[in-house]
Amino acid sequence: MFPVLRSCFTPVIRAPLLVRTFTYSAPVFRTNTSTRTKENVHDLETFFKLIGRNCNEHLDSFEGNLDKFLATSSKDMKEMGIDVSTRKYMLRWKHKFVNDLEPLREHKRGKKKNGGERKARTVIAKRKALERLEAKERHASDELEAERKGERTF
Questions:
Q1: How much is the CA Rg of the chain, to the nearest whole Å?
Q2: Which residue segment(s) compose the domain that 127 sits in?
Q3: 92: left (phi > 0), else alpha (psi -120 to 50), else beta?
Q4: 5 exposed, middle or buried (CB, 10 Å; 0-12, 13-18, 19+)?
Q5: Statement to judge: residues 93 and 115 lie in one domain
Q6: Could you tell me which residue ranges the Small ribosomal subunit protein mS41 SAM domain spans (predicted)?
Q7: Crossing angle for the helix pair 44-51 and 84-98, nearest 10 degrees?
Q8: How far apart are CA 89 and CA 92, in angstroms?
Q9: How far is CA 14 from CA 8, 18, 27, 51, 80, in A?
Q10: How many domains, in total, are found in the chain?
Q11: Is the pTM above the cut of 0.90?
Q12: Does 104 fall in a domain?
């Protein structure tokens, strides 16, 4: 292009892109200061009470024995008649308890907003349409009432 200009520029030595390193603590390295740990829970009733979600209902299935609960598989729990969501929840907490990953606490069930992600638009649209219909009916009844009182003459 411009040979004169090109020769006056010296090549710039570019350093390789520096990689940003982030420090974060993995769950393995965190110290567990809670009293709801593996060392402090010795019976199944306490375990179920701490994890919540009405797991106490299934205390009789395991005869109140924590060791029996820890030895029970998902298939055995299914045969005992424990429903799927509760069974998954109990198995997840069993894994966390055995490996001492997290202090015992209740994970609340999620609540859907506006009927869930897929149905949100239609639920909101129906709600707004219903509100408009109610407002229209309210206006019509107010007009009839005003006409009966003689406030409106048509």
A1: 32
A2: 111-153
A3: alpha
A4: exposed
A5: no
A6: 44-100
A7: 110
A8: 5
A9: 18, 11, 38, 56, 67
A10: 2
A11: no
A12: no
